[in-house]
Amino acid sequence: MLRMIADYIPALRIWRRGERWIGVFVGQEDKELPLQLRVAVGLVSELP
């Protein structure tokens, strides 16, 4: 999941809570499309 996000956004803010992380980012799939605020959640073991 993180690799997919990395191609989409310039920066990701991540917070850890126990065994999980939450990430918030703003991205734009194409210059003509609107900006989108997205949230992702995963396990800490998935982080690089």
Structure in words:
The protein is mainly β. It has one helix spanning 2-6; strands spanning 13-17, 20-27, 36-43. The chain has a 3-stranded antiparallel β-sheet, with no helix packed on it. β2 (20-27) and β3 (36-43) form a beta hairpin. The termini are close together. The mean pLDDT is 82.
Give the helices and strands as they follow along the chain: HEEE
Q: Over the alpha carbons, how many angstroms does the gyration radius reach?
A: 12 Å
Please bin the fraction of helical residues. 10-25%
| Structural shape | elongated
Strand content: 35-45%
Number of helices: 1
Give unreliable regions as ranges.
none
By helix and strand content, what is the structural category? mainly beta
Tags for this entry?
48 residues; elongated; three-stranded antiparallel beta sheet; 10% helix; mainly beta
Question: Helices and strands in order, then pairings?
Answer:
Blueprint: H1 2-6, E1 13-17, E2 20-27, E3 36-43
Antiparallel strand pairs: 1-2, 2-3
Task: Quickly describe the structure.
The chain has 48 residues and is mainly beta.
